[in-house]
Write a structure and sequence with these properties.
Blueprint (H helix, E strand, L loop, with lengths): L2 H16 L1 H6 L2 H38 L47 H10 L7 E24 L3 E25 L4 E19 L8 E11 L3 E9 L7 E9 L11 E3 L8 E3 L10 E12 L2 E12 L2 E3 L12 E4 L3 E11 L4 E12 L3 E4 L5 E2 L5 E13 L5 E9 L7 E6 L2 E2 L1
Antiparallel strand pairs: 1-2, 1-19, 1-20, 2-3, 3-4, 3-5, 5-6, 6-9, 7-8, 9-10, 10-13, 11-12, 12-15, 13-14, 14-17, 15-16, 17-18, 18-19
Helix pairs in contact: 1-3
């Protein structure tokens, strides 16, 4: 019973009690008149009480709606026993109830699954305890190189060998990634790839015979370089400050290294074409890659950028020669690389998001040092590869998402095209 109803009932009781002697002494008409007045007063008090209750409910609702709300996409939910920090991505900040007001704690709706997919692909998603992510990707490269071996006579006539070489390379990668979020700031993962490579080689124009063509094909598959990664959320998104994550990845030389692979002459090629006996599926050295990534929500877009540096450890190999009859030991210092990327994404609805980004990797020259000789750089081992990427993510359910990506090579060292699909499943 409310205070207003209690006061109304008490007042009615007191009025009735005070009028009892008068009613007993008065005539019947006077008693009836007084009773009617009491009933009218009681009805007025009940009407006023109903109005007061309606106004109190309306004020309470307006106070709840006026509480500040802070919803970001991606990120984590607040842990039990802790309060959500303002601006944390993907966190629904509860309204703070006033003491004694009896208000119910209200939470915002969780972030859309399409926005979570963007965070997972470009950043890190810390609110999923365990994630298993199978993936498949394909890359294609087609290179044509013109080789001139001779000299110019009279500054106009070329005397020597002219050779046009073409190499087409197709690579299929099947990989499985497992992620474990220790808490809302720390995440670990492991990636195990399997590569299948198919390369075709042909050459023409050797020995002044431009109508002759020699060609061959090599294909094989094997496990690639297994890698381990760790992610640490340095800052949560708040105000103008973006969500910032530091990462560290270690790659192990579990794949077939490219050193010491022998080349054999193609039959009927006249010595113009030699092919490798097999294709590498790894780099052959340990490497460590520190990096940083940032992401910022600017409704309706999500902006992201990343920066990393890969350091390759020098490794000794018992044989790096491509000649079948030669064995040459040497120390190999694979060129380090520097990578950066940036892009944006849109969460089109609850399930669908689209993104576009550009990534670039610059690789330094590789150097080798044979026993008893000075270190020398390998000409043509440096690279500058730029890719323009278009991605899409679609939620197939509460726990399963499909992401697709198409990359177009911008620079000569980049693959002509890459296509990939991934299917992260959250437990």
């Amino acid at each position: 019973m409310s205070a207003t109803s209690f006061r109304c009932t008490t007042l009615s009781f007191c009025i009735g009690l005070a009028l009892t002697p008068t009613i007993q002494a008065a005539s019947d008409p006077e008693v009836a008149q007084l009773q009617q007045q009491v009933r009218e007063m009681q009805q007025r008090y009940e009407q006023q009480n109903a109005v007061l209750k309606a106004m109190a409910i309306k004020i309470q609702r307006l106070e709840q709606e006026s509480q500040p709300r802070n919803v970001k996409v991606g990120g984590t939910q607040p842990q039990p026993g802790t309060s959500a920090e303002q601006g944390e991505p993907g966190t629904a900040s509860p309204t703070t109830p006033q003491a004694g007001a009896g208000e119910e704690v209200v939470k915002e709706a969780p972030a859309s699954r399409s926005a979570e997919a963007v965070y997972r692909e470009q950043h890190a998603l810390f609110d999923r305890k365990i994630t298993i992510e199978p993936g498949i990707s394909y890359s294609h490269s087609d290179r044509r190189d013109l080789f001139l071996n001779g000299f110019l006579a009279l500054d106009a006539i070329f005397l020597g060998d002219i050779s046009l070489d073409r190499v087409k390379a197709d690579t299929w990668t099947f990989d499985l990634t497992g992620r474990y979020s220790y808490n809302d700031r720390l995440q670990f993962d492991i990636n195990v790839p399997y590569l299948y490579r198919d390369s075709s080689f042909n050459t023409s124009g050797a020995g002044f015979a431009t109508d002759q063509l020699a060609e061959g094909d090599v294909s094989n598959g094997d496990i690639g370089d297994v890698s381990f990664g760790a992610f640490y959320r340095l800052f949560r998104e708040q105000g103008s400050r973006p969500d910032t994550v530091l990462s560290l990845r270690v790659k192990t030389p579990t794949g077939k290294d490219p050193y010491g692979i022998k080349f054999v002459e193609v039959a009927d090629s006249g010595g113009n074409l030699t092919l490798p006996t097999e294709l590498p599926t790894g780099n052959g050295v340990w490497s460590v890659t520190p990096g940083i990534s940032i992401i910022k929500t600017t409704d309706p877009a999500i902006l992201f950028a990343n920066l990393s540096y890969t350091y390759n450890f020098e490794e000794s190999f018992s044989d790096i020669s491509t000649d079948v009859n030669t064995r040459t030991s040497a120390d190999v210092d694979l060129g380090d690389s520097f990578a950066l990327g940036a892009g944006f994404a849109f969460a089109l609805n609850e399930k669908l998001s689209a993104s576009m980004s550009y990534s670039h990797r610059i690789t330094r020259e590789t150097s080798i040092k044979q026993n008893g000789q000075s270190e020398q750089s390998i000409n043509g081992s440096d690279a500058s590869a730029g890719l323009l990427n278009f991605g899409i993510s679609y939620s197939l359910g509460d726990n399963l998402t499909m992401t697709g990506n198409v990359g177009i090579g911008i620079t000569p060292d980049a693959p002509d095209v890459t296509v990939g699909f991934r299917f992260p499943y959250n437990f």
